[in-house]
Design brief:
Length: about 325
């Protein structure tokens, strides 16, 4: 998206991958199983300085989706077949300086109600200086309910096979929750990351809601997965302002998981806060270097955890582990 006149809205939503719906009627077509597919190879999105993203796409409620969009809400009432819109390769997203996204940022694919919007490779994200994201940021995929959630769902996933690599410029502002991995907001769905999450903040980041370094499962999503199998490598430079801080995953749905690593395959979780000596980590609530879980969910870390503060200091209580309520973290 290139620079345009000041009164011109370039786009209300950009999708890197395809858009799949299952809106055919098997009773008419005579076919009992016919998935709707819109797969692509690699995707690349570049939003140039000066572009205007004045309104977010209402479905799935995002200004940018790096992967595909599997829309189960468009499914015909008689159709139980999956919507499939995979990125078979990698996703690359570049947003230049001083861009504001009116709605959410989704690095991977998105599924509403049912479907498969997985990414087969890695995701590479770069935001320039002075950018603002007004809604949720999730570096991985998103699953969310829709009006057709009661229909048969053969598959519900927006996984990422490889790493998620993200670099954020100076003075970045996130108006809602920041999730480094995937966000599962639908029961029995998965937004797992098979590789490592590598996030780098160059300086001066503000998050008006919670910061979750890995994956997140929402309260209404039972038996969902937002795991990260490859570990974390996080570098935060300069001042860091946040409402709540979780240095791992966050699992709120009953019997869900937002683990890092897995039993028998230990990984490393490394977080470094670097500053010039007078930088601060400001949080409304206590800072948890581990995860958060409740409702019989778990947000475990399988492996070694390292936290380094060099030239910066937390102004709230910093807890080396996680937090839980009727769960394991």
């Amino acid at each position: 998206i290139l620079n345009q006149s000041s009164s011109y809205q370039n786009a209300n939503g950009v999708f890197g991958g395809g858009h799949a719906v299952g809106n055919y009627d098997p009773a008419i077509s005579g076919q009992t199983f016919k998935p709707s597919q819109a797969n692509v190879g690699n995707t690349e999105i570049t939003i140039k300085k000066g572009a205007i993203m004045a309104a977010g796409n209402t479905s799935p409620g995002a200004s940018l989706v790096g992967g595909g969009f599997a829309d189960g809400d468009e499914r015909n009432i008689n159709n139980d077949c999956p919507e499939i819109t995979k990125v078979l390769g990698n996703v690359k997203i570049t947003i230049e300086d001083e861009i504001t996204l009116a709605s959410a940022f989704i690095g991977g694919g998105t599924v509403i109600s049912a479907g498969d919007a997985s990414v087969g490779g890695f995701i590479d994200i770069k935001l320039g200086d002075n950018c603002k994201i007004n809604k949720t940021y999730q570096g991985g995929g998103l699953t969310k309910p829709g009006i057709q959630s009661s229909y048969f769902s053969p598959v519900i996933k927006a996984d990422v096979t490889g790493d998620i690599r993200a670099e954020f410029g100076n003075n970045i502002y996130f108006n809602e929750i920041f999730i480094g991995g995937g966000y599962a907001n639908l029961s029995d769905s998965s937004v797992n990351v098979g590789g490592k999450i590598k996030s780098k903040f160059l300086g001066g980041a503000t998050i008006a809601s919670a910061y979750v370094a890995a994956g997140c499962v929402f309260t209404s999503a039972s038996n969902a997965e937002a795991n990260v199998l490859g570990g974390l490598d996080i570098l935060i430079n300069g001042n860091f302002n946040v409402q709540s801080y979780y240095g791992a995953g966050r699992a709120l749905g009953s019997y869900s998981s937002a683990d890092i690593g897995k039993s028998g395959s230990p990984v490393t979780v490394v977080t470094k806060f670097l500053g010039s000596g007078d930088n601060t980590i400001v949080s409304t609530n206590s800072l948890f270097n581990g995860g958060y879980a409740k409702n019989l969910a778990h947000a475990n870390i399988y492996g070694d955890v390292s936290l380094i503060c060099d030239g910066t200091r937390p102004v709230k209580l910093l807890i080396g582990g996680g937090d839980s309520k009727d769960a394991v973290a």
